[in-house]
Design goal:
6 strands, 19 helices, two-stranded parallel ribbon, mainly alpha, Ribonucleotide Reductase Protein R1, domain 1, elongated, single chain
């Protein structure tokens, strides 16, 4: 597992103690169900429940010899339970507890990720409202386009996060299935009611059909969901990294007291958290691809997926949880520079109004081609001379045939350009 990025609340899910605890729950529940059916003596269940316990180190010690984790676990249980242990795991196969437990753990991890996504969504909502009217330039292809507000950028990330929550909820629903169906999924030595009983108690749905395993498209969907959420975080970090560039400097990620930016250059404040999150998103995409590779297995099962899942599923959940934790810090405590946004907005001397001028000329009766030609001619002159766009337009005789100076001033006005910001926020239910 990835230790560096591990946070205790999610890493505990993947520790042996939690895994074996779930194994034990499943085994005891299966015994209860078997006893209700009269398959095993009812009087052994209280004994099993009372005596059954495990020791992680002892299990690992046994596993060194038997080379089978479930057998090692069952052997350790029998050391504590005694003769009644022969009824534990009766008619079951290893995957009945392995896959059902994995579903429980993935559900547990997914619910923690949902909590962090909800926290992120709330912070984005608050920041979007705060900066709803903070005007900045919109950029397409990295070039100044038309004005937007920083609040709109945050509102977009808020909407993305809402969709991430929906995806995560769906992924949890689809992974939260268990099985107690035996060696090849035929219930040959088990009554199907045992599966229903165990799954209900564990907060799972019984798999509609299983072989020796729960089918791995469910796990692949879960991993792809994590990768999609990570990609959304990467989208945010890529934007912040650009906005933190020295020549832009509109937004900065937090820089703590005593923090150092460079071993060589004391002046540096680098966007290291955003860069880290961008890098980790690539890791999540790799895990997602591996999850897809695990879908096609031999016949009713092989274990080519097993060794991989023991790494990628814990690491994927821990990594994404950490990414969300860090991005919450960044978005909550980032520094925003409205004056720099205004200064950058004005760098093109009003060229951000080229489209409304174009549309007004069309409205006056010019063809689109002619109007475009007139506006582009003046815009290119501004690029070369750094003259104000409005002055350039007012001094063009052709433009003045169609537009009065007062009309040009009215068109090249920020308030008129951002009149629908409130509409967008209302659509998102942010106001």
């Amino acid at each position: 597992m990835i230790k560096r990025y591990s946070l205790p609340e999610i890493s505990r899910i993947w520790e042996d103690e939690n895994k074996y605890s779930v194994w034990l729950q499943i085994e005891i529940l299966a015994c209860e169900a078997q006893a209700k059916l009269g398959v095993i003596p009812a009087e052994v269940v209280p004994i099993i429940r009372q005596k059954a316990r495990f020791d992680v180190q002892r299990i690992l010690e046994i596993e060194e010899t038997v080379q089978h984790d479930v057998i090692a676990f069952l052997t350790n249980l029998s050391e504590h339970v005694g003769p009644e242990a022969r009824y534990i795991h009766y008619g079951m196969t290893s995957s009945d507890i392995l896959d059902t437990t994995l579903a429980v753990q993935m559900k547990q991890a997914g619910e923690l990720i949902l909590q962090k996504l909800s926290e992120l969504k709330n912070i984005l909502a608050a920041q979007a409202k705060k900066y709803k009217d903070t005007v900045m330039v919109g950029r397409t292809h990295g070039i100044h386009a038309e004005p937007i507000t920083f609040g709109l950028k945050l509102a977009l990330w808020y909407s993305d996060t809402q969709l991430s929550i929906q995806r995560m909820e769906n992924a949890i629903e689809h992974i939260a299935v268990g099985q107690i169906s035996g060696a090849v999924g035929t219930y040959d030595h088990l009554d199907p009611s045992i599966e229903i009983y165990v799954c209900e108690k564990m907060g799972l749905e019984p798999a509609p059909i299983s072989t020796q395993i729960i089918q791995r498209d469910r796990h692949a969907e879960y991993l792809n969901t994590l990768a999609l959420i990570a990609a959304g975080l990467e989208k945010i970090t890529t934007e912040i990294r650009h906005l933190q560039k020295t020549e832009v400097l509109e937004v900065e990620e937090p820089f703590g007291k005593g923090q150092k930016g460079s071993s060589a250059m004391p002046h540096k404040k680098n966007p290291i958290i955003c860069e880290r999150v961008s890098g980790l998103a690539r890791l999540l995409r790799g895990f997602a691809i591996t999850g897809m590779e695990n879908i096609a297995l031999w016949h009713e099962r092989d274990i080519s997926h097993s060794s991989v899942e023991r790494i990628i599923i814990p690491d994927a959940t821990i990594t994404l949880y950490y990414m969300l934790y860090k991005m919450i810090q960044v978005l909550k405590d980032m520094t925003v520079y409205p004056e720099n946004m205004k200064r950058n907005l004005e760098k093109t001397h009003g060229l951000i109004y080229s489209q409304p001028v174009l549309l007004k000329l069309i409205e006056k009766g010019l063809s689109r081609e002619k109007a475009y030609q007139l506006v582009q001619k003046n815009a290119m002159a501004v690029w070369e001379t750094a003259r104000e766009f409005t002055d350039q337009l007012k001094n063009d005789p052709e433009i003045c045939q169609y537009l009065e100076p007062s009309e040009i001033d009215l068109i090249c006005n920020l308030e008129n350009r951002l009149k629908n910001v409130n509409y967008i926020f209302k659509k998102l239910k942010l106001i």
